[in-house]
């Protein structure tokens, strides 16, 4: 039976609540704004469009979406706590080295380069991403510290 992607997002909320009940830990969801999404905004021009009806996992970083999904799963608003937090991508080398790590090991970046290579645009993509990594870097030229703000979500069982 086909389930709409929107309905699937609500079932993810139910699954998250179920895991919360079993494990008793905090539920942390996908970042709203992070290096991957920043990178993705540049890389999206080089990759094919997603399938029709696709809902980006990054939407878990939008507080209204999270509250709606958990509300539909039967969680009352007072049991959902959302707060912004920051993760730092840190590397002892310059931003370009971190980009090379993303290029070799981070799926969305790998996919973007694969697609860009097919159109002879890999060099253009590398130039854009290098600039993004350098612009977001707070550590100077010889090391890297890039802040990544995300939405931390904690759901409690009454």
What are the defining features of this structure?
flat, 2 strands, alpha+beta, 158 residues, disordered N terminus, single chain, two-stranded antiparallel sheet, 6 helices
List the helices and strands and how they pair.
Blueprint lengths: L4 H19 L11 H9 L19 H10 L7 E12 L3 H11 L1 H12 L3 H15 L7 E12 L3
Antiparallel strand pairs: 1-2
Helix pairs in contact: 1-3, 2-5, 2-6, 4-5, 4-6, 5-6
What do you see in this structure?
This protein has 158 residues and is an alpha+beta fold. It has one domain. It has 6 helices and 2 strands, in the order αααβαααβ. The chain has a two-stranded antiparallel ribbon with strand order 1-2. α5 packs antiparallel against α6. It starts with a helix and ends with a strand. The model is unreliable at 1-8 and 17-34 (pLDDT under 50).
Compact summary:
Helices cover 48% and strands 15% of the residues. The chain is of the alpha+beta class. The chain has a two-stranded antiparallel ribbon.
Radius of gyration: 18 Å
SS content category:
alpha+beta
Mean pLDDT: 79
Cα shape: flat
How many strand elements? Answer: 2
């Amino acid at each position: 039976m086909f389930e709409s992607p929107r309905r699937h997002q609500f079932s993810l909320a139910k699954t998250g609540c179920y895991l919360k009940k079993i494990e008793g830990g905090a539920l942390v969801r996908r970042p709203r704004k992070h290096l991957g999404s920043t990178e993705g905004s540049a890389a999206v021009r080089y990759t094919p469009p997603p399938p029709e009806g696709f809902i980006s996992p990054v939407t878990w970083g939008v507080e209204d979406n999270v509250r709606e999904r958990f509300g539909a799963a039967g969680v009352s608003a007072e049991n959902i706590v959302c707060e912004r937090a920051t993760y730092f991508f840190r590397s002892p080398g310059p931003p370009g080295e971190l980009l090379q790590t993303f290029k070799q090991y981070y799926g969305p970046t790998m996919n973007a380069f694969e697609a860009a290579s097919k159109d002879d645009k890999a060099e253009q993509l590398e130039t854009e991403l290098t600039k993004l990594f350098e612009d977001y870097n707070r550590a100077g030229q010889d090391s890297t510290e890039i802040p990544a703000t995300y939405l931390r979500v904690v759901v409690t069982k009454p």
